[in-house]
């Protein structure tokens, strides 16, 4: 009987987490379709800040993190992309389709770099 309750608990936990992830990831899409790009942008930036600062911070509190040389390269690329995004956002206070395409191409190039190294 205990195993059945444990299994039901795990299933409910997985379904609840799936519902939460689906709801939060669809927020940016819905906001963009309604023309509220500020909400979509805030969702993306807030999510990344939380993952970088809180998750890494809590991980380091629990157990010190060792920084590898490859991580430094990734951090420099992340900082460069953030600066590039800032420049794109400041020119005309909007991001054009060509600037968006440039961001997507940079992402594809970075993903290819990760597979190659």
Quick overview:
It is a multi-pass membrane protein. This protein has 117 residues and is mainly alpha-helical.
Word description of this protein:
With 117 residues, the protein is mainly α. It folds into 2 domains: 65 residues; 50 residues. The protein has 4 helices and no strands. Helix 1 packs antiparallel against helix 2. The longest helix has 32 residues. The radius of gyration is 19 Å and the shape is extended. The chain starts with a helix and ends with a helix.
For this entry, give a set of tags.
117 residues; transmembrane helix; 85% helix; NaCa_Exmemb
Strand fraction:
under 5%
Report mean pLDDT, rounded to a whole number.
82
- Biggest sheet layout: none
Structural class: mainly alpha
Keywords: Membrane, Transmembrane, Transmembrane helix
Protein name: Sodium/calcium exchanger membrane region domain-containing protein
Membrane topology: Multi-pass membrane protein
Organism: Waltera intestinalis
SSE layout:
Layout: H1 2-33, H2 37-62, H3 69-90, H4 97-116
Helix pairs in contact: 1-2
GO biological process, one term: transmembrane transport
Main location: membrane
Subcellular location: Membrane
